[in-house]
């Protein structure tokens, strides 16, 4: 399981870091930490449709306790764990080689078949506007539209795709391993969205080629947005970036 490998790497980088605050909330679960040099904020998309009966196994919250649960079968523990891993990643990440642009700019004109994992209407519209053949897959029926395929078809169709742009919430819902396994033809595999704040080196040796996420630049604005349950409020405190997984 990818998250099992990632959490082991994250734990090694968490020794000098301390949990400051956290929240399991909508739209994002978040973890704030501090270290000797600065603070860092990590988030993970909260998927309420995945939450069922829950009993909290964490009696004493800490950064390492959250990270240890990143591969839990319990989606709430997994979401908190991924947010903690993202906070550790954001503390250590070097964006000197990053491009502060949008994931759309990664695609060449002859990209071929493009799969969007997660219905992202603005991105789908932009891709179709540039003439790409786009296949949109979505797990949550509430987010389907007339051009959306059920995620049940990913297993059969992904081997035909040349480009995969996946919402990094696939890390939260546990489908990322299947996506990577089936994306055999894809020359570009990008994890996108705030949940994709991982250190690129955590994904070396996988089929992931790029991470397109957000760096918090205004902690007060971003945290206020998170506490108020606001997509826009959180994202106004961030800067988009794209970084390659070497």
Could you describe the 3D structure shown?
There is one protein chain. With 246 residues, this protein is α/β, with parallel strands linked by helices. The chain folds into two domains: 91 residues, 2-Layer Sandwich (Enolase-like, domain 1); 127 residues, 3-Layer(aba) Sandwich (Rossmann fold), CATH 3.40.50. Helix content is 28%, strand content 24%. The strands form two sheets. A seven-stranded mixed beta sheet has the order 6-5-4-7-8-9-10, with helices on one face. A three-stranded antiparallel beta sheet has the order 1-2-3. Strand 4, helix 4 and strand 5 form a beta-alpha-beta unit. Helix 1 packs across helix 3. It is globular, with a radius of gyration of 17 Å. The two termini are 20 Å apart. The mean pLDDT is 94.
How would the blueprint of this fold be written?
Layout: H1 2-12, E1 18-23, E2 28-34, E3 39-45, H2 63-68, H3 75-92, E4 113-117, H4 121-129, E5 133-138, E6 148-150, H5 154-157, E7 163-167, H6 176-182, E8 188-192, E9 210-216, H7 219-227, H8 231-235, E10 238-244
Parallel strand pairs: 4-5, 4-7, 5-6, 7-8, 8-9
Antiparallel strand pairs: 1-2, 2-3, 9-10
Helix pairs in contact: 1-3
CATH class of the largest domain, please? Answer: Alpha Beta
| Number of β-strand runs | 10
CATH architecture of the largest domain: 3-Layer(aba) Sandwich
CATH topology of the largest domain: Rossmann fold
**How many domain regions?**
2
Low-confidence stretches: none
Oligomer: single chain
Helical residues, percent: 25-40%
Strand content: 15-25%
The chain-level mean pLDDT equals 94
| Biggest sheet overview | 7 strands, mixed
Our measurement of the CA-to-CA distance between the termini, rounded to an integer number of angstroms, reads: 20 Å
Q: Write down the Rg.
A: 17 Å
The coarse silhouette is globular
């Amino acid at each position: 399981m990818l998250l099992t490998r990632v959490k082991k790497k994250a734990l090694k980088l968490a020794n000098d870091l301390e949990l400051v605050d956290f929240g399991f909330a909508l739209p994002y679960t978040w973890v704030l930490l501090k270290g000797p040099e600065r603070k860092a904020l990590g988030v993970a998309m909260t998927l309420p449709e995945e939450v069922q009966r829950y009993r909290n196994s964490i009696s004493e919250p800490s950064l390492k306790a959250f990270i240890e649960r990143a591969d839990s079968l319990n989606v709430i523990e997994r979401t908190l764990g991924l947010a903690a891993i993202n906070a550790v990643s954001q503390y250590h990440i070097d964006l000197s080689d990053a491009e502060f642009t949008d994931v759309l700019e990664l695609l060449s004109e002859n990209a071929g078949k493009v799969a969007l994992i997660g219905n992202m209407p603005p991105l789908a519209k932009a891709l179709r506007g540039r003439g790409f053949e786009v296949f949109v897959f979505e797990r949550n029926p509430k987010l389907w539209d007339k051009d959306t395929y059920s995620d049940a078809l990913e297993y059969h169709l992904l081997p035909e795709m040349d480009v995969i742009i996946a919402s990094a919430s696939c890390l939260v819902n546990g489908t990322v391993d299947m996506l990577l396994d089936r994306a055999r033809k894809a020359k570009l595999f990008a994890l996108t969205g705030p949940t994709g704040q991982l250190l690129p080196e955590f994904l070396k040796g996988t089929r992931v080629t790029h991470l397109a996420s957000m760096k918090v630049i205004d902690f007060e604005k971003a945290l206020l947005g998170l506490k108020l349950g606001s997509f826009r409020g959180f994202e106004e405190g961030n800067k988009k970036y794209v970084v390659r997984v070497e």
